[in-house]
Task: inverse folding
């Protein structure tokens, strides 16, 4: 996908997806782990898509173009862009918070019927943008998106049919995120948000074992 002049742009795909969210919600009620409901919108859908176009999209392209970024991060951000362009991934910057506010979720992959969606919860992203430096916010978004790609990579490899099994899969995904993305960024002295630095420390305490009980417990709600 090119930064400019692409026949199918990220912005067009975003606008199409967001405009069709009410339809998607109505047709798939009860599918997945949360429900999109227009009553929960805290801003117009067009504002959410514009935020993504102006703030989020440049971060993705810049990451792919910057050869100094860790390979594990660049490769997964590149995969996001490729999947959006060829319609394997429907990217939806939504104008709602994730229903369980205690989880403070910025992005989430959901498999709905035959499609895979990457949701960005724009209100939560804007809140975090206010509390972090520009560089920290950039890496928050990049790490979050790359983490969701790891979930896509793991699709079908691990059970997720119960809360316990889903927690184990999440633990594995975060273990990979720490080792392949967060720690290389820390080693390069990038502005990694403190939460992710602490996550790396916690994984070290678990002896870098994604199957460690203490580590799994972090991801089992």
Result:
């Amino acid at each position: 996908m090119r930064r400019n002049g692409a026949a199918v742009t990220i912005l067009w795909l975003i606008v199409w997806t967001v405009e069709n969210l009410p339809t998607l919600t109505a047709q798939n009620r009860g599918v997945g782990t949360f429900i999109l409901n227009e009553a929960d919108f805290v801003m117009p859908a067009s504002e959410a898509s514009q935020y993504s176009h102006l703030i989020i999209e440049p971060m993705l392209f810049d990451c792919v173009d910057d050869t100094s970024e860790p390979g594990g991060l660049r490769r997964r951000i590149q995969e996001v862009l490729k999947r959006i362009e060829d319609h394997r991934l429907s990217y939806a910057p939504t104008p709602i918070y994730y229903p369980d506010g205690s989880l403070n979720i910025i992005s989430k992959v959901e498999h709905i019927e035959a499609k895979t969606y990457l949701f960005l919860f724009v209100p939560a992203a804007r809140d975090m943008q206010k509390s972090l430096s520009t560089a920290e916010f950039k890496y928050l978004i990049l790490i979050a998106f790359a983490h969701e790609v790891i979930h896509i990579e793991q699709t079908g490899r691990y059970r997720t049919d119960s809360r316990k099994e889903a927690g184990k899969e999440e633990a594995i995904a975060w273990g990979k995120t720490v080792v392949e993305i967060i720690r290389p960024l820390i080693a390069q002295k990038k502005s990694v948000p403190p939460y992710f630095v602490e996550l790396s420390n916690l994984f070290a305490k678990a002896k870098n074992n994604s199957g460690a009980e203490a580590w799994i417990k972090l991801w089992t709600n």
